[in-house]
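To: structure desk
From: M.T.
Subject: fold request, one chain
Message: Could you run this one when you get a chance? Sequence is below, nothing fancy, just the single chain.
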Amino acid sequence: MTTTTSHVQPEFPHGAAHESGSDLLDQIRETLARYVILPDEHAAVGVSLWIAATHAAPAWTFATRLVIRAPEKRCGKSRLLQIVDGLSHAPLKSVNASPSAVYRSIGDRASDPPTLLLDEADTIFGAKASGDEDLRGLLNAGFERDNPALRYNAGHNKVEELGTFAMAALAGIGAMPDTIEDRAVVIRMRRRAPGEKVAPYRKRRDGEPLDKLRARLNGWVRANLRDLGLATPSMPVEDRAADLWEPLIAVADLAGGAWPEAARQAAVVLTGERDANVQASAQTRLLGDCRTAFGDADALPSAVLLERLKAMEESPWATYGPNGLTPMRLGALLREFDIASKNLRLPTGQAKAYSRADFTDAWDRYCTDDDGASAGGEPSQPSQPSHTIETAGQSPLFGGTS
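Reply: Done. Structure tokens follow.
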């Protein structure tokens, strides 16, 4: 695990309780604007409030994630993470974190956890990465308080509870796993346009002013920690979005000024952008694309289904993993919907194949008409004639092959 040493939190500045929260948040937003071009004002509000909320982690039920993503390099995502590092509470930054190291880092300070910062997250979770299910599970579990992981300690012959609750930010190219983005304020960075200028950031020179601002912010937040923990702000969004925005809006309400209204506007706009732009989960997207690939066929051999899925230009299956979607991965994704391949007798002979009848219930539940063309539009491949299919005397496969 490649990490940078967490910043030591200084004593609360004298008079911290009397700081103007609104002024402090204004200074955070101005600091961000000095070094980074954010997509819009709502993004600036969201990041500013997230930074402030990291200093009140002991008060929250939910530890909001911050996802900083970009379509290409040189969009400012790593620079933004640097500024977040300079202003957040007890930041623990890494570009290659092992789950065991993260568990230990949180567990050692469970009552006042560090802020996890993961750069180059696309190398772990991106479309061409193998994925780290342990780390993703840790990040998902750590969103909610009192959701520990259990591990057996052979040396002490006992089961241990490992803390997972901590604020976390991830930066990378492309989307993060949907289970992470669903728990996150998502900031979509873009390259600077001609004429857009920012100041260069050098930690030796610029780090000290950020440290001072961080100390003032920490003092103000910690002086009001009890009030933040008891806050029940009115929320402009619902369900999971309300969970992740509650800490940020509680900070905004405490700060006052223009921040309460700006926070609620940002919640609505950024949540709407996420819902409008986020891709369907891999499983749901796959269901829709399978419906397109089937056309009118009653069954498709596994190899044919894979071939058609990979040929869909607007879908990710040709590049899903190092070698594209594999039979094993196809089976694993569909198994979540109780769909498995069988040995079927087709006009072309017996083969491992998927039956249309096994998809029907999942299509009715998850592939509504407004899911887009990939979920139910016109088939992108020629339809196959209907076939009468028979099970070849074997039970559905639940193993690694399809």
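Reply (cont.): The chain has a mean pLDDT of 84. Let me know if you need anything else for the meeting.
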